[in-house]
Amino acid sequence: MCRHLAYLGPPVSPSDAVLRAPHSLLVQSYAPLDMRGGGTVNVDGFGVGWFAGDGYPTRYRRADPIWTDGALPRLLEPVRTGSFLAAVRSGTPGMPVTETACAPFADDDWLFSHNGVVLGWPESMARLAAEIPVVDLLHLDAPTDSALLWRALRFDLRRGRDPVAAVADLSFRVEAGAPGSRLNLLLAGRDLLVATAWSHSLSVRTAGGGVLVASEPCDGDPAWQAVADGDLVVARRTRGADENVEPTVEISTVEKERSQA
Rounded to two decimals, what is the model's pTM? Predict the structure, then answer.
């Protein structure tokens, strides 16, 4: 389980939402407001990923609590990016505490995070794992539920699946094998952000021409909107458009997106 957030919009520093805001991800790591049955302290690592000037994602991950990393503020302060994703982790019992188990998971086009837990792991995911090429499974980042979900999603994306449909469908495939799982999924690309609210809290704010999605509001801005359980947030920027172009935001039910898959 974790707390996570992602941004799409004009270039900003991730430092504000991650470290400096009144209820930043840093604060949420030790004083979350709503864990929905999870642990209170997210002590098992953290990660920040952003799309750099060359168009590819850069990641910084550690297996330590985010508040212990003295290098992070100086690292993030000069960064300006139009798309980033960050997460802090509370490891599920039985799963390893390692840097590679921390979100964001990534390839050349996407950053991914999972806030929640897959019940019955790993037996409940045998069918999902069987749909993934063996070579992909051999490259699993870590033996965790979140890492497997990323590999399953990555496989669909590389086959040309629509990202929004792929995220929505993954939720239903996991739920079918592991009913009652908590599956807040977060996918960020250069021009697209997709987030599900599935048995965990999620909020969205549109301000300053950008969209910020977070497990909990980072501040007291009244523009924050709670996302209903079962809803899907999609923020889009016209592909190839200047980063200063304001993204469009749509909120719909995951069921609707599944029916369009």
Answer: 0.94
Amino acid letter, residue 15: S
Residue 132's Cα: distance from chain center in Å? 21
One of 1, 2, 157, 187 is an active-site residue; which one?
A: 2
146: part of which helix (H) or strand (E)?
helix 145-158
Residue 53 CA to residue 83 CA, distance in Å, equals: 11
The length of the chain, given as a count of residues:
261
Known catalytic membership, residue 2: yes
The encoded tokens of residue 117 equal: 């837990």
Q: What is the pLDDT of residues 18-76, one digit of tens each?
A: 999 999 999 999 999 876 555 578 999 999 999 999 999 999 999 999 999 999 999 99
d(CA 108, CA 89): 23
- Whether residue 143 is preceded by a cis peptide bond, meaning omega within 30 degrees of 0, is no
